[in-house]
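idk why but the lab printer keeps eating my pages so im just putting this in chat instead. protein + heme C:
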Amino acid sequence: MKKYIVLFALTGMVAACGGGATKTEEKTATEAAAPVADLSSNPDYQKGLALIGKSDCLTCHKVREKLIGPAYQDVANKYENTDANITLLAGKIIAGGKGVWGEVPMTPHPTVSEDDAKQMVKYILLLKK
Ligand code: HEC
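predcted complex ->
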């Protein structure tokens, strides 16, 4: 967190001296640094990411951009990080889902256990911005 604040202060100073061009840089620098620096040491993040890496999720989902399914960051922005939402979304990963983000359905994942599905959701919801 400290690192992030320092970085922000530095880019802020640079932006204050420069013109419009440095402002864009400031935005991408903070965007790139913020989630990664804070999250990578969180055990929920690491476990969830490992499970997602082992499954087929990333053929349809990316963290920041919509692919076939919604970007994980958009999912995180839509749902509050509560037990009820974790259970709801874990159920959709297992049973499949449709109609929330568009007409393209998500395939069901019956071989994913409920615990693993919940762990995946915990990772996704940490990506909130
Ligand atoms: C075949 C492509 C595909 C695969 C594979 C896939 N998804 Fe999805 N996913 C989608 C689509 C499409 C949606 C949007 C469904 C909708 O509109 O309700 C979605 C939605 C979601 C949502 C949000 C559900 C909601 O109701 O808001 C979560 C969370 C999610 N996927 C997680 C995962 C995880 C974790 C995996 C891996 C186990 C996975 N997805 C694999 C296509 C896929």
